[in-house]
Every structure is written in C-alpha cells, then in structure tokens.
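Sat 14:20. Reprocessing the chain from the morning session after the first attempt stalled halfway. Input below, unchanged.
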Amino acid sequence: MLFNSIEFFIFFPIVVLLYFLTPFRRRWLLLLLASYYFYMAWKPAYAIILVISTLIDYTCSRSMGRYTDEEKDRRKPWLWLSLGSNLGILLLFKYYNFFNDSARELALALHVPYAMPAFDLLLPMGISFYTFQTMSYSIDVYNGRIKPERHLGIFALFVTFFPQLVAGPIERAGNLLGQLKEKHDFNYTRVVAGLRRMAWGFFKKIMIADNLALMVNEVYNNPGDFEGFSFILATVFFAFQIYCDFSGYSDIAIGAAQIMGFNLMENFRSPYFAKTIPEFWSRWHISLSTWFRDYLYIPLGGNRVVKWRWYYNLFIVFLVSGLWHGASWTFVVWGALHGVYQVSGILTREHRNAFVEKTGLADHPQLYKWVQVLTVFFLVCFAWIFFRANTIGDAFYIVGQSFATLTNPLQVFSLDVAHDVYMNQGFKVFMVSVLSVAVMETVHLIQRNGSVTALLTQRPAWVRWGVYYAAIIAVLLFGQFGSQEFIYFQF
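Finished this time. Tokens:
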C-alpha cells in the first residue's frame, strides 16, 4: 500500500480510530493485523517471507537468551542461523540474478560453459529494510545489549510495524520494542504535530519529488535524446527528487507513528547543507548510516587500526552500502565513489587546510562555509548520476556530456528537459518544482535557527490558516497524486 494513495487515506484514519478505541492489552494485535494487511495489499504471498523471518529470529533470540554473557560462545550457532537465514533470503530474492548474470557474462567472455539457471523472482517490497532491522536485533541479543523479547506478537509487530515497514527508518529494538508495550493515550497536541509532520512529508513527495520525476525520468530514461545542460539540470533535479521522495516517506512514517504515540528515529537532517562528505552521511539516511557504523564499520575495526586498514574499512562499508541499495553495477560504483570521497578526504585534509589558509578563505568563514556546501553538493550530485542511470554506459555518457558543458561555457544551454513533458506542460512543472524546492529550503533555513511551527503559532489565526489553505490548494492544483511509487520501495 502506498502512502500517497486513496487506500492509505482510508486505511490510516480507521486504524488510528480503532487503536484508541481498543483496550490497551489488545492494541498490539490490532497493529499487527493492520501491518500485515498494509504489506499484503501489495502482494499477499510475500507476507510468508515476513512470517518465516520473524519466526526464525524469534526462535534464535530466545535460544541465545538461555545463555549468560559468560557463555557467549554458545550463542554463536543461533546468531549464525539468524544472520544466515536473513542474508540467504535477501541474497536469493535481491542478488541471485545479479551475481548469476555477472558470472554468466564473465564465463561468456572467457569462453567457459555456464549452466546456472536464472529465476524470475519479484523483489519483495522493503526486504532490505526489515532484514537489517531484524539482523540488528539478533546481533544486539547476542552481544547482551538487549534481552530477547518473550512475546511473539510484540516481536512480530516490531518486525512489521506498518509506518516504517517498507522504507524505514530502520529502527533499533532498544528504541521501538519497548514503546510497543507502553500505553499511549490520545493526545491532541501530539496528534496535531504528527499530522503536521505527515503533511510536510506529503508536500515533499507530491509537490516536489513527483513533479521533478517527470523531467528526470524523461532525460535519464532517454539519454540519447539529450545533451549538454539537460543532464546537469536533470541531475540537480534528481538530487532534490530523491531527497524529497525518501525524506518525505520518513516524515510520513514518523508522523503516522507519532499520532499513535510512537517516536521513530530521525532519518534526515538537511543533508545538502553539509560541509563535508562525512557530515553529509551523518545527515542522510541516518538509520542506515548508523546501522553500517555499528554493525559493520566498528566490527571491522573502525579507525582504531593501522591507517591502510582504516581506509579499507571505510571503503568496504560504502561499497556494501552501494550494493545494499540495489543489485546493479551502477549502485556498486555509486557506493565506491562515496568510499573514495571518504578516504581521499582524509588523505587531502592537510593540503586542503593549507590551501584555505593561503587563499584567505579562513578569514571569511561564511564564504568558506558556502564554498564547502557547494563543493559537497557537486560531489554528491556527481555520484547521483551513477545511482540514477539505468546502466553503466548511460552513466558515463551523461558524465561525459555534463563535463563537456561545464568546460565549454560558450555552449548554448539546452533546456529541452523532457521534450514532450516540457513542451506540453513542462513550464508549469518546472516552475512548480523550483518554487516548491525554494519553499522547502526556506523552511530548512528557518529551522536551523528556530521552529517554523513556533513561528506560525505566533501569528494571528487568519495568517496561520491562510498558509495552511494556500498549501492545500497548491498541492491539489499542482501535485502529482499517486503517479510515482516511493523510490526506496525498490530496495
């Protein structure tokens, strides 16, 4: 079920109403049934995978819980069973054909016979998200950070909680599991705050992401029809499309959970204002970046190793992160690029600091800050080309065309972005997208120094409701309702 669908606008109010009317001791059952219905509205048969994963992790965690910390070695078989089962399911449905096709192409190039069959498997929605969530639970139980949950229904709800089931945030048991056992009474202030957060998410998705998608998809799906500035503009548009699409989903999920009394972790904090690549990753998809930090980077040794191993650890983490995002070489290159950014940032730190001192940028902190922000944005957008391109060949073609334009400022800008869309309705789409992005970034700037909500509440009622009605009318007139799935559903 999509958040931006009529079905959800019917489903969610009914669930909330029943939630507050249901006796506390039965609310977990209501939410569990609602969560399974939410997932099964997409493809009912794939709920079986959720059930299997839930039962395996529940059994393994309860078995690990029988041993004390001094008997930690006896927990290992159960940990490996849990991790192996989860990764096995993920590898089968998401990566088998990718690795199989790559191996077949290599065998063909080497003139070696290859007979492994391909499977026509539909990727289960959100499998990477709930797999990582359950894996972190098993690892935390193994390490003694949390006690295994005894109530199978509560644990199943932790795995399937519908607001964040298919696209995060990737919750930790230490945050969410306890909240599922608490009683949450109806609270008007909290409900209003949750609705406001959901509305902000829908604005980002419907007004910005889906309008930008019309132009981005036309260019990236037909790269041979475009050249020059079209690729640069489409790449910048995609940077905002994917941010508004994914952070919009997170806002809706956080707001929906907040209405019922649950606090999910923040997943984005204005990432395009980051001054360094590490800072970008501390602001972007926070639940995933902290997952990789805690469950891969630190176990590999983090930065408490010799330098070459530190660089290796960083690179491996981002390479795996790229592969997590999709079974394609474009995602692997995207992850590798961010790994190179991280390592080269460390290696060039002293030289960059010396350059800043020599040029006098250090004497102009505000100017230097924006130079850093724009530099990071450029590097992130360059990597986004590989993330969005349909093939490696398309990505390199777009890179070549983009740099040819940047190095030749006399070239006439080609503004034929999405020819059919742009010529027929493109000017409206273009202006709506640009103005909506401007509104969003203005809100982000205000929030860096205060709260937009607090600012509105200080104004007269006619001003507040004028803003609300203007936003609603704008969305109804210019929004793209149900035209695009959320990008991260494919992961």
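The CA atoms of residues 391 and 479 lie 30 Å apart.
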